[in-house]
Design brief:
97 residues; mainly alpha; 4 helices
Length: 97
């Protein structure tokens, strides 16, 4: 954590996780990995489309759009409603049938 927004470096983050989880790498279970994001809605949806198996954490920083916009410029294009929709999409795609 604290190394920048991982979803803006999507391909390299997934490649790193692939190496970390592979038997030839560290062999760590994807369920033991958590990627923390400030919230890029379209990339959260992409995680769902790509059926990732690691955990996702969202750093809200505030519970309403007005305060969140003050704190985080990213909220202008990724407001709470967009994040809610993206997270629901992500969760629905990853639920076991």
């Amino acid at each position: 954590m604290g190394m920048g927004e991982p979803l803006l470096n999507y391909a390299n983050v997934l490649k790193s996780i692939e190496h970390i989880t592979s038997p030839e790498g560290l062999g760590i279970s994807p369920k033991r990995i958590t990627v923390s994001t400030a919230g890029i809605a379209k990339m959260i949806k992409k995680l769902g489309d790509d059926e990732v198996r690691f955990n996702l954490a969202l750093s809200l920083h505030a519970a309403n759009d007005a305060k969140r916009t003050e704190i985080m410029e990213i909220n202008d294009s990724n407001n709470l409603a967009a994040l809610k929709e993206a997270l629901e999409y992500f969760h629905e795609l990853l639920e076991p049938e």
